[in-house]
Amino acid sequence: MIHTKRILLTLIIAFIAFTSLSFADSAREIDADANDALQTFYHDVPGGQKFLEKAKAYVIFPDVNEAGFFFGGKYGEGALRVNGKTKSYHSITALSVGMQIGVENYSLIIAFTSDEALKNFLLDDDDWESDFSSKIVMAEWTTDDDDVDEVDYGTSMVGFAYDSTGMLGKLSLEGTKFERINPDD
Predict the structure, then answer these.
(1) 22-29 contact pairs (CB < 8 A, 24+)
(2) Distance between CA atoms of 109 and 12, rounded to whole angstroms?
(3) How many H-runs (helices) and E-runs (strands) does the chain carry?
(4) 130: pLDDT confidence band, cut at 50, 70 and 90?
(5) Residue 2 pLDDT class (50, 70, 90 cuts)
(6) What is the pLDDT of residue 22?
């Protein structure tokens, strides 16, 4: 059983590494997908546009793919926007172990509501690891809720996962890594 788990973990790691190296989008593709995902966010999330306009910056991952069968992983590429303009490109990668099964695709926005949170993200030339991701509060809302810009989340980093397809049920330990990338144009 342990041998099988090691093989599965190795395959998932190889898949994520292969996906990130072989199928990386160009900067134009990332920006176009980010623009589309942003319009969906504005349409689907009450007060979402106002919230992002107040934020110091946000990173938008328009297409995060996540899959798991006891071992799991996720990968996506996105754009960091400051004052509505792309400043840099980043990937999100995670490996997880635990009770999980399924496949899911979604868009993810992480908004920085303080200068310090943005500074920490921009100054880290290597990786923005799970130490920071544990400080992100994931916003929850329904179409009947008040605008998200009227909520005090009590943190300087707020995440919004939306436009989800598929289903992934899980109870797992996960380490998420954010890394700066340099896509081709």
Answers:
(1) 24/77, 24/181, 24/183, 24/184, 25/77, 25/183, 26/183, 26/184, 26/185, 27/86, 27/89, 27/183, 27/184, 27/185, 28/185, 29/183
(2) 25
(3) 5, 5
(4) very low
(5) low
(6) 46
